[in-house]
Amino acid sequence: PGPAMLADGEQEADFQRFLRRVDDIANLVQGLNSTDPAVKEKAFAETEKRLHDQETSEEEESKTTVNRTVINTQASDVANAEAVNADGFLAILEKDAKERAKRRKRNEHLANALKEKGNNSFRKGDYVTAIQRYTEGLEKLKDKQELYTNRAQAYLKMHEYEKAIGDCEWALKCNEKCIKAYFLMGKAHLALKHYSESRQCYEKILQTDPQKESLFQDCMNEVNLEEKRVKDEERAMKEVESGKLAALSIKELLQKLDRPDQNILYYTGGIRLLTGAVRDCTDQTLFRTNNGFSILKDNETVRRGFCAERKNTAEVDLSVSLLFLWQAVCAGNEENQRFLLTHPDVNAQLPKLLSSGVSEIEKETLALISLYSENENGRRLLVRHQDLTKWLQILMTFVNSTDARASSAMNILSDLTEEERFRIQCRVTLSTGVLPLFTQLLTSAKWVNQAALARCIGIMGNLCADVVIRTQMAECKECWQACLKLVDERFDVSTPKYHECLFAVLGLMMNLLLESNVIIQHFAVDVSGRCMSLLGDKDGRIVTRAIGVLSRILPASSSAVEEVVKGGVVKKMVKFLKAGGEMTSNYAIKTLSVCTRSSRQAQEDLVKSDKRFRVLLKLLDSENEMIVGNAAFCLGQCLVIPGAATSLLNSNVVMILLKHAGGDATRTSVQENAAIALGKLCVAEPRHIVQLRKLNGLAILNSSMKYVHS
């Protein structure tokens, strides 16, 4: 992703004006400091003119806002009559120039540091982070040519050729003689099969520096060879398709493909024809019964091209054609799916194809795997015949993709997480491979495919159903830090997709908080503080999950409770309880129960915020036992506040608590909390005992005392 400031024509014009302004000011300052009187006088006159034009412009702007009915013309005349203090102005201008130079020097230092960080990431093969660092550097210094060319090189590695070309164009605006920009732009055009444009870029290299003749010749030879290869392939394909092969049956096509004396283009064309011949389940069966799956085993040219580590363009085309063929013969055919997956070469190559770095191969490999993952039998075949220990990590990397591969990979992962054997295999590389990648994706949320990231976070949350995985994640300090960073950056990225990431990460934290450990205790204050800041979000889903996280994180830390109480959590929870749905109420009353259990201030705040306990009394009538139990607990905690029990004298609180204390709720905590609250109520305000006797409640209360432990 390039910087937003360089996105359109208007901003490009602004960039050009900025460069010209820098040059003009530099020339003026140089002229003012000249030893030549004529040069100095000319510079001074130009400076005065600029100042006058600026003052005139500012006066024109001010006329649109000044109250025209009150104008002191005399003061204006006096001001216009004053002469410009030339020496003073010169000093101001020089000071301004020095400040600008100082600021630019500081920004250049920061940009260089970010460039080095980007270079380190590039050397490690982490091109997403490299792009992020170069972009941050350009935010500091938008006319730094090296950052554009370095980012263009990273885009080339990511196969983002159009973006690479865009960055090279910006580099050339900064330095029209930048050979590296012409070289990289030529590479990008070549990858897009823009042969003419690629040659023009390489010709510019020679025009700029005639000593680069050797580089120029190498580049031109590469373009010529690639263009010839593509034309040869097209010619071969036409020959195949226009010849007798096009009219052959599946059996005859397979026999023709069994010939060992043909080049790779012949086999690619034949495989494509074979794919077109497979139209229904009968054709799929014919393919299998005529040994169609042995094409890799029996044909060394095809096998070598498919299994090559570093594939040339012809081998890429062959592999893509095979993947298309297998999709055609395996779609909805479980027997063919089994045949394919038990082939040793296919079995070994699938994870390699997924991480090949060639977008066409990765796209069709994902499409093939989707045929298996979208149904239960297919998933079982994958789990049984594939080593899936690294698949979580491999598929997760597609969050960096901006095309359909990201969505396909997340669909497959979502399907696979339903299989227990897959979850067990995920444990193997979780701490060493998956979590480092996952935390890196979270911290790069502004730059990656946010729709895919939101799904990825949700998938990791679902994997937390596995206790081993959840424990490892909950103990990962870097994972918690990355979650907090994503929450913090919501102000910088206010897109709907980023909001989905925020929603997902809150759900993940809720799942992780089913655990209890020292890491969670360490982050409790920070996590609860972030949740408090989210309570004003416009998205009700975000608010509900933020309250949910609060309800689970606060029991881990008394310091966190103290901080949120100071931040007004009680008043906020009461507000949500008045208007919220059942889930929000469940989390909010749990949060209040945690706070009132240990904080006198929280108890006082609840008595003050919930007049006559109207909200708590309403919650005690809920059908949800969890809500009832926590509401009774909160009420019991607050009755130690002077006057709290008295405020309930004219209510039906005794009858409600008595009903729950003697009821048959499946959660014994409901009876326990109701009995304790009823006991505290009568102790704090004995007049409630009268109502208790009228309801014959003493016997019920006595029988409920078995729930009271103190």
From TrEMBL:
GO terms for biological process: axonemal dynein complex assembly; sperm axoneme assembly. TPR repeats lie at residues 179-212. GO terms for cellular component: centrosome; cytoplasm. This is TTC12 protein. Residues 36-65 are annotated as: Disordered. Keywords: Repeat, TPR repeat. Residues 38-55 have a biased composition (Basic and acidic residues).
